[in-house]
Known about the structure:
- Residues 99-103 have low confidence and may be disordered.
- The chain has six helices and no strands.
- The longest helix has 43 residues, at 40-82.
- The N and C termini lie far apart (105 Å).
- The radius of gyration is 37 Å and the shape is elongated.
- Among the domains are: 39-81; 107-156, no CATH class.
- By secondary structure, the chain is mostly helical.
Amino acid sequence: CTAVFNAASFRFSEPQEITDFRRLADREERQSARQPAADAADVDKLLHDLYDMEERLKTAQADNDALREQVKRHEENIAALTSPGMWDAAPAVDEPAPGPEAVEEGEPVVTVAAAVRRAAEENDHLTFLQSAFSSAEDSPFRHPERALQALQAINEV
């Protein structure tokens, strides 16, 4: 079979369209081999973009990790508050626990830092260190009015 193929192969000639296509492909391959030197600036820009995106990805992953931890704490709090028998062992209290109405009137508390500043101004029995103010500035706590209520309750005790 191969002898017949070898004998007939000298008669085969490629169609002109295929020959032209091969030449075009060879020419484009040679041009693309020369092109990288001209595109060095593009490569630098792409690398810069890549590094920038990696930094943004790291930041987003850190934010996601922090949010996962927060969700985990919330789930643990919910599980503790909804567990059977949680409220059965609670001591009887004559007075209801102070609610949102326990916060004295004034300008609304928007941040934990504002709650700490307000508690420092209004409460006589509490002493705040400078570190309390700086940590309050960085606090991720989402309910500053509760922080103020807690500080007011500590002042009463």
